Amino acid sequence: MITIAELLEARGEIAQLEALKKRSITEDELMPILHNRRVVVQEIEQELREGYKEKFPKWLNAEDLETMCLFIVTANLLDHYSREWMKYNKPRKAIQYLRTAKTFLKKAIEEFTQGLTLDEKLRLVREATRRIENI
User: Which of 24, 56, 64, 131 is 20 to 30 A from 114 (CA-CA)?
Assistant: First the structure.
């Protein structure tokens, strides 16, 4: 059974093939795309694991600041939609997964920022708050 997660990950390749063929692709055409994508992703992840050396930043460069702000905004969106879905009686498991995703995202943010000074953490919170208010 093909999952929505697999389809979302392969959306670029699916769109290219559909544009090339000028029609919706069939399941027979989709299966090799998904299989090849899984193999490539596994190979890339293996290469990354081999050269991995953990390090914790002491300050946030522009790219890290941008990433952390996006994660904080995403955590806020997950929180917002889990409440909205509760209000409108959406599937309970889906709400649970949103909350779990928010929890793990916050843990990732905490882990990444553990080596930062208080000033850097405050800088991150200020920037994320500014971005949230502008949405």
Answer: 131
b (16+ CB within 10 A) / e for 7-34 = eeebeeebeebeeeeeeeeeeeebeebb
State how far the Cα of 9 lies from the Cα of 3, in Å rounded to an integer: 10
Are the C-beta atoms of 82 and 65 separated by less than 8 Å? no
pTM of the model: 0.77
Per DSSP, the chain holds a count of helices (H) and strands (E) of 6, 0
Residue 105 CA to residue 99 CA, distance in Å, equals 10
Integer angstrom CA distances of residue 14 from 1, 4, 123? 17, 13, 41
